[in-house]
Amino acid sequence: MIKKMIQEHPFMMIIITILSISTNGLETVANLILITATNTIISRKTALFFILSGAILLVYLIHWFTGYYANIFEEKMIQATNHDIRKKYMRNQMTLALEDKLNPDDTINVVTNDILLFDQQYLKGFYKLFNCIFGIILSSVALISLHWSLFLASVIMTVLLMFVPKLVGKRLRTTTGNISSNNDKLLKKLNDWTKGYHDLLWNNALFQLWRKTHNSFHTLENSYVDQKRAQQTAVQFGAFMNMAAQVAVNALAGYLAINNMVTFGVVMSAGNLAYQLFGAVSVSTDSIILLQSGSSINDKLVSLTKPVSVDRFEKHQDEIDNIKNIKLHNLSYEYKNGTKIKYPDINVSKGDKVLITGPSGSGKTTLINLLSGRLNDYKGSLKLNNIEYSSFNNLSFLKIFGLQPQSYHIFNDTIANNIALSNDKYSSEQINSAVKKAQLSEKITSLSQGLKTLIGSESEVFSGGELQRVSLARFFIRKRPILIVDEGTSALDKNNAYKVMNLLTQDKNLTLFVITHSIDNDVLSLFNKHINLSQE
After folding, report:
1. CA gap 223, 181 in Å, rounded
2. I need a labelling partner for 435 at 20 to 30 A (CA). Which of 22, 81, 149, 398 fits?
3. Domain end call among 279, 304, 329
4. Per-residue pLDDT tens over the stretch 442-489
5. 419 and 283 in one domain?
6. Residue 309 lies in a domain
7. 304, 336, 352 — which closes off a domain?
8. Bridge-partner residues for 327, per DSSP?
9. What is the mean pLDDT of the chain?
10. H helices of 43-103, where?
11. Is 504 within 8 Å of 483 (Cβ atoms)?
């Protein structure tokens, strides 16, 4: 993931590198100037001392500016990377959704919690380590210039410090993986039980909402504690080793100064350079710990953002473009539990209006999925234009079938955007035409903002029946040749339901399938074909 990040944002990475080198280099320069400044105190050169002190202050001021902008550009790079990951992941999810493989809970967890963990641990760890590398190199070069023994001592202590991450690396990877897994389980549990709050309310069981979720909260909270425990084990031990290393280098510099091998000013600077070096090493060990913590999330995101493709080629495109008939013969479907449903033979021609009735469990929803190509492991024969359904690319059916479901979704957006689904290719005239067909014109005209009125699934602007007609307008604007209505007028009163059915059945070019569990004689008279699943 790091390699891809650098390849996709090379210019920004160059800027970060220059700023990072400048920041660490300026700190090293300031420490070297301090040697001369300290020696001027001993030689009582007051004017030179103040000049050098001013120089040190100026260097640190520039150091502050370069450090500030280095951090800003690092954050920009991190957020750009997060955006790239979300973009690739969401593209994959849109592709998977074509095959009904999108899991809302998993999607939300990845684009929020997993990317936050990736940001705070893996990416932050990388940039801290990247910055520390220059600090280690520059301070080491400075120590060599002062005395070889100071550098040698620093190398020995650095090697000891670098062993710290290995102590808890495996444990950190495990705890981070547990956080992601437990958060995913919590989201699924919350989604399940919060969606059912209405049933809990009316059955005097709201107390179960906490009872059924608190263990999942507790497990996730403990995962964070376990991770912090592993991190702090390494961090605190690393901090102790860091202080011990600085003391050792200072002691060696003092010994060298006592024996006139270096000047007294070197003692002061050696301490500062040791602080810079071991501080960088300490932060780098913490960074390696963060990288190890986030490695499991990195691996997960790498896997999830690998390009996913589906076969969109349709060898029978001419048949898709010119629907003539659909035939069912000896059609049956067997569920995983062994239950088998058989369907009556029927020949549906272009423009036919087919009513499908039957009690719950009779296979109405399964028949919808078979007709729309969402299920293809059927037995018997199901043909479109005398070509078996299994010979078509099932994605092609999305272009010819419209579905008015019993459970639909209204987005928190304008009426127009809910109908067009924010697709700019539909004009105002097309939207108004769809509104008219869905019998919403009078209602929308009465609203001060008209089609720009904001609505949502809990909108107080529209009734349930009116929201259902908004969903129906989505089909009218897309003009698919076949429409399946799955209890799609259930929220309408009898009069409006009849008006909508009458409108749909009057369209001579529309092939219509309407699924319902109840039969109204007035509505029944509008259809020329009837499939009664209760007889099977």
Report:
1. 10
2. 398
3. 304
4. 899 999 999 999 888 777 888 877 888 888 888 888 888 999 988 756
5. no
6. no
7. 304
8. 347, 383
9. 84
10. 46-97
11. yes
5: Cβ–Cβ under 8 A, 6 or more apart, which residues?
A: 13, 77, 81, 84, 123
Is the Cα dihedral 417, 423, 429, 432 positive or negative?
negative
* CATH label of the domain that carries residue 107: 1.20.1560.10
- 157 and 259 together in one domain: yes
Rg of the Cα trace of the chain? 35
Measured from the Cβ of residue 355, the count of other Cβ atoms closer than 10 Å reads: 23
Q: Which of 146, 115, 192 is nearest to 36 (CA)?
A: 146
Residue 491 to residue 468: CA distance in whole angstroms: 7
Query: What per-residue confidence (pLDDT) applies to 326?
Result: 93
Q: Verify that 332 and 290 share a domain, yes or no.
A: no
| Owner of token pair 């690739």 | 88
In a domain, 310, yes or no: no
pLDDT class of 198 with cuts at 50, 70, 90: low
Q: To the nearest 5 percent, what fractions of the chain are helix, strand and coil?
A: 65, 10, 25
| 8 A C-beta contact, residue 220 and residue 179 | yes
* Mean of pLDDT values over 144-162: 80
Q: Are residues 335 and 190 in the same domain?
A: no
Task: Provide the CATH number for the domain around residue 455.
Answer: 3.40.50.300
Exposure letters 134-148 (e unless 16+ CB within 10 A, then b) = bbbbbbbebbeebbe
d(CA 417, CA 454): 9
Same domain, 242 and 370: no
Report the candidate in 6, 137, 23 with the shortest Cα–Cα distance to residue 70.
23
Are 94 and 167 in a shared domain? yes
Backbone angles phi, psi at 262, to 5 degrees: -140, 165
- List the one residue out of 434, 496, 502, 421 whose CA is nearest residue 465: 496
Strands 482-486, 401-404: pairing kind: parallel
**Judgement on whether residues 290 and 322 belong to the same structural domain of the protein:** no
Co-location of 299 and 369 in the same domain:
no
Question: Is residue 345 within 8 Å of residue 536, measured between CB atoms?
Answer: no
357 within domain boundaries: yes
Domain assignment of residue 18, yes or no: yes
- Backbone phi and psi for residue 99, each to the nearest 5 degrees, phi listed first: -110, 20
Chain centroid to Cα 8, Å, comes to 19
- Give the total residue count for the chain: 536
Query: Are 56 and 33 a contacting pair, CB within 8 Å?
Result: yes
Q: Give the residue numbers spanning the domain of 65.
A: 2-304
pLDDT at position 536, please? Answer: 45
Give CA–CA dist 94/76, Å, rounded: 27
User: Number of structural domains, the chain?
Assistant: 2
